[in-house]
Design goal:
Elements: H1 2-11, H2 13-51, E1 57-61, H3 69-76, E2 81-87, E3 89-91, E4 94-95, E5 101-102, E6 105-108, E7 119-123, E8 131-135, E9 147-151, E10 157-167, E11 179-181, H4 183-189, E12 197-202, H5 208-219, E13 224-228, H6 229-240, H7 244-276, H8 278-286, H9 291-327, H10 339-364, H11 386-407, H12 411-447, H13 451-462, H14 464-502, E14 507-511, H15 522-527, E15 532-544, E16 550-557, E17 565-568, E18 577-581, H16 582-588, E19 595-597, E20 602-609, E21 622-625, H17 629-632, E22 639-647, H18 653-664, E23 670-674, H19 675-718, H20 720-728, H21 733-772, H22 783-809, H23 813-817
Parallel strand pairs: 6-11, 8-10, 16-21, 18-20
Antiparallel strand pairs: 1-12, 1-13, 2-12, 3-6, 4-5, 7-10, 8-11, 9-10, 14-22, 14-23, 15-16, 15-22, 17-20, 18-21, 19-20
Helix pairs in contact: 1-9, 2-6, 2-7, 2-9, 2-10, 2-19, 7-10, 7-14, 7-19, 9-10, 11-12, 12-13, 12-14, 12-21, 13-21, 14-19, 14-21, 19-21, 19-22, 21-22
Length: 819
């Protein structure tokens, strides 16, 4: 039997080729997901190693303790210390070439080259107060030797000379400074800057453990801790990698999708192969082969194909991971290949192939020896039976029931019901596929003129199970991508609508330095600009609410912010009034109509609101009139303030924006943004995630089309005599190819339509349940993207039929008739 299996593999390489392609793509997705997950960790570890390179000991301060110059001096005096530097980072906004403020952070150039967490790329590091070096990704628009304007904590401008460009691994999300200045300039930028940590390099021959022990004795205690560089790196890695499990789940979910689609293609392929080999298997039974041997031979064939394709898929997974990192814009591409990735990829590929081929292998054991006497194609066509119809009805009822319960439930309880409803509806669609494939294909054929369309409909309707199985993989792939696309578009649309509802302004002005407020008269100054209809001032501060404690509050003057009001009225706040958010209401039990007694003011609760979703604007736990700030504030400082600007209805936005920028030239820390820019900034992460989803699901759809091509190729082999007879009766090679192309298009249309309907229905259900829970999400299908998706499926169908059509048209008629 082993020799028979090997001989069969050698004799039928083309029949198994596209099955191997499906396995390869699926395994490539799994391997690529593991490699990409490991790449995130590898990049983070490299960044942490870069940040802590040369560090043998790290001195940090806990709560209630501070590090200063005297601590640094004592550290440097400890025996065994070769060098020590204090690391401090301060906010240092820069003015770009366009004159607008940019967020930036500065640190001082260290005294020891080996302890610097950056590499000099060009020029040199600052050695005087009037010099600066910039990180490579921030230097665009500036020239070496040219001026760079930096704003200090008070908003004063410092014009420095760019003397160098440095590089550091910014992709890992560690943050850090993108400017390097001298120690003297750092103190000018922020006199109150505190030292984050002191890094120490040991002298030759001194172990880190001994160095840490000596440092603990010299400066440890009273909230100051000393650890080795290795321990500091481990702590930094732990603090910086909280999202790794989410990344693993995200890519694992798409890997599972790819393997499900691949498994369906593989199962369909082996089902066709077993059906085509019924005479061969029957002959094996005639010469003494048992059922177990036949079963084992089919599984062995699947295992050989799965093993070879899995190895190819593992190598392809490295390419997938590299491509996705490149698409994401990462400069450093990591391709770690661990034993876990190798074992998982090979195991998944081989096991999925074996399981997918198990049912066809079991079907092969039911072939009786008398089948060897029959002519291929004499048997009845495989059609859907009553059990499939019952299963479809049960799944449909379960899906509709779960959907109804989800719509009537709270968000937490509704989420599992939504998942159950989506799975049940998808299962009902797949179960009903063979029942509706024939009528759908016949209807498409009536709408398509020409004899090839009629022949294609006959071929597809002859075996509706096979037609539905070919379309099922495409249905799953398009259902997922439609669901992801529609939900992402709904989130973007919901945020945009929420922004329009909550922000009655055309521009916002915020401070580039959160600790430095905008000028108090800025709102009045901007209100005088021709074309400006109204302005609003908002300031955040720490306030005292009497027996309820201190909270982060906002003081406003104007009515251009309109949060979602749960009770009461928020249209205008006057003296002695306060609006509280729902969290504060739950904590304190306060409600509309209650009186809140602070130390220096008595406030009447007039509204309970649900917060705002405007990026960069936070109302805190409560809002009061601007005149009340001085009565409630714990200190004289405010932070994170902003000015909102509404233009007249007939104003020229472009001209007035230029006028506003001119007025803001006297306030260098002020950053002007239009509402459209705020929307773009808010939707950018969604668009990036959506593009990544499209890239990932594209592989699943590619596997689905490989399945369609595989089915057509195998059906061409199955219908060799039939195709030859049609050609003998006058059908040309072009007509035969058109028939196969039409069949491919019909199958693709059927699968795409089912996928779009399931995806849109699931997306609607998700948006309804999420919206009932207070999330800003709307059902707004991106018809343009979905149209592109459907068009791509229709255009890809003829490509899937290209090779099968060429094969059907080749060869002599006499040889084909004798097949």
């Amino acid at each position: 039997m082993l020799r028979t299996v090997l001989a069969g593999l050698k004799a039928r390489p083309l029949r198994l080729l596209l099955s191997a392609v499906a396995i390869t793509l699926g395994v490539a997705f799994v391997a690529g997901s593991f490699v990409l997950t490991d790449a995130v960790g590898a990049g983070l570890r490299d960044a942490v190693a870069f940040e802590t390179r040369g560090v043998d000991a790290s001195v940090t301060a806990g709560r209630g303790a501070d590090l200063d110059d005297s601590t640094l001096a004592r550290v440097r005096q400890v025996p065994g210390v070769a060098a020590a530097d204090a690391r401090a980072t301060v906010s240092a906004p820069t003015l770009g070439p366009d004159g607008r403020a940019r967020d930036a952070a500065a640190t001082a150039s260290g005294t020891d080259e080996k302890l610097r967490p950056y590499d000099l790329v060009e020029g040199r590091l600052p050695s005087a107060a009037g010099e600066i070096a910039m990180e490579r990704t921030s230097v665009e628009g500036f020239t070496l030797g040219g001026p760079v304007t930096v704003l200090d904590d008070s908003g004063e401008r410092h014009v420095l000379t760019l003397v160098g460009v440095f590089d550091r691994p910014v992709d890992a999300g560690l943050g850090g400074a993108n400017l390097v200045v001298s120690q003297e300039m750092l103190r000018r930028l922020d006199p109150a800057a505190t030292v984050g940590d002191i890094v120490v390099r040991a002298a030759p021959g001194v172990s880190p453990t001994k160095l840490v022990a000596d440092l603990k004795q010299a400066v440890g205690g009273n909230g100051i801790s000393v650890v080795t560089g290795r321990e500091a790196a481990a702590r930094l890695l732990y603090e910086t990698a909280p999202n790794a499990p989410g990344v693993v789940k995200f890519f694992t979910a798409f890997a599972v999708l790819a393997m499900v689609v691949a498994a369906m293609v593989i199962s369909n392929s082996f089902t066709i192969l077993v059906a085509q080999r019924s005479r061969e298997l029957a002959l094996l039974r005639c010469v003494g082969a048992g059922k177990r041997q036949v079963f084992a031979s089919v599984l062995a064939e699947a295992a050989v194909v799965g093993t070879a394709a899995s190895v190819a898929g593992l190598l392809g997974g490295l390419g997938v991971a590299a491509a996705l990192q490149a698409v994401a814009g990462q400069e450093n591409v990591y391709l770690p290949l661990t034993a876990r990735t190798v074992i998982a990829a090979l195991a998944v590929g081989i096991l999925v192939t074996a399981l997918a081929a198990a049912l066809p292998a079991w079907s092969a054991t039911r072939v009786t020896p008398v089948e060897a006497l029959r002519t291929p194609g004499d048997g009845p066509a495989a059609r859907a039976g009553r059990p499939r119809a019952v299963a479809g009805i049960v799944l449909l009822a379960a899906g509709v029931g779960a959907a109804v319960l989800a719509l009537r439930s709270e968000m937490d309880d509704g989420a599992p019901l939504v998942v159950a409803a989506m799975v049940a509806l998808l299962g009902a669609t797949l179960a009903a596929g063979p029942l509706i494939a024939g009528p759908v294909v016949r209807a498409l054929a009536r709408l398509t003129p020409g004899q090839p369309a009629k022949l294609a409909a006959l071929n597809a309707d002859r075996n509706p199970k096979r037609t539905a199985a070919s379309a099922a993989a495409l249905t799953i792939g398009l259902a997922v991508v439609t669901l992801a696309t529609t939900v992402a578009a709904g989130v973007e649309t919901g945020e945009s609508r929420g922004l329009d509802e909550q922000l009655a302004a055309d521009f916002t002005v915020t401070s580039a330095a959160i600790t430095r407020p905008l000028p108090g008269t800025l709102a009045d100054t901007l209100a005088k600009v021709p074309g400006v209809d109204a302005t609003m001032t908002r300031r955040s501060f720490s306030g005292d609410l009497g027996k309820y404690g201190s909270y982060e509050l906002s003081a406003v003057r104007g009515d251009l912010l309109r949060p979602k009001v749960l009770s009461g009225r928020f249209d205008h706040l006057g003296p002695g009034q306060i609006a509280i958010n729902k969290d504060l209401a739950q904590r304190t039990g306060l409600a509309v109509g209650d009186t809140l007694q602070a130390e220096r003011a008595s406030l009447h609760v007039v509204a309970v609101y649900d917060g705002v979703t405007v990026p960069g604007i936070d109302l805190g736990f409560a809002v009061v009139d601007l005149a009340q700030q001085s009565l409630l504030a714990l200190d004289d400082e405010s932070y994170d303030d902003s000015v909102l600007i509404r233009l007249a209805s007939d104003a020229d936005h472009t001209r007035i924006e230029a006028s506003l920028k001119q007025e803001l030239s006297s306030a260098p820390l002020a950053m002007l943004k239009s509402v459209s820019e705020i929307k773009d900034d808010a939707s950018a992460p969604i668009r990036e995630s959506l593009n990544l989803m499209w890239a990932l699901t594209a592989l699943a759809v590619l596997i689905a089309f490989a399945g369609i091509a595989n089915t057509l190729s195998l059906s061409v082999l199955e219908r060799t005599r039939e195709s030859a007879l049609l050609r003998a009766l006058g059908l040309t090679r072009t007509g035969l190819g058109a028939t196969l192309t039409a069949e491919s298009v019909f199958v693709a249309l059927f699968g795409a339509a089912c996928g779009l309907l399931v995806g849109l229905g699931s997306a609607w259900l998700i948006t309804e349940v999420a919206a009932s829970g207070g999330d800003t999400i709307a059902f707004a299908p991106p018809w343009e993207r979905l149209g592109v998706l459907l068009g791509a499926a229709i255009l890809a169908a003829p490509l899937a039929a290209l090779l099968p059509a060429r094969r059907a048209g080749r060869g002599s008629l006499t040889a084909a008739l004798q097949e």
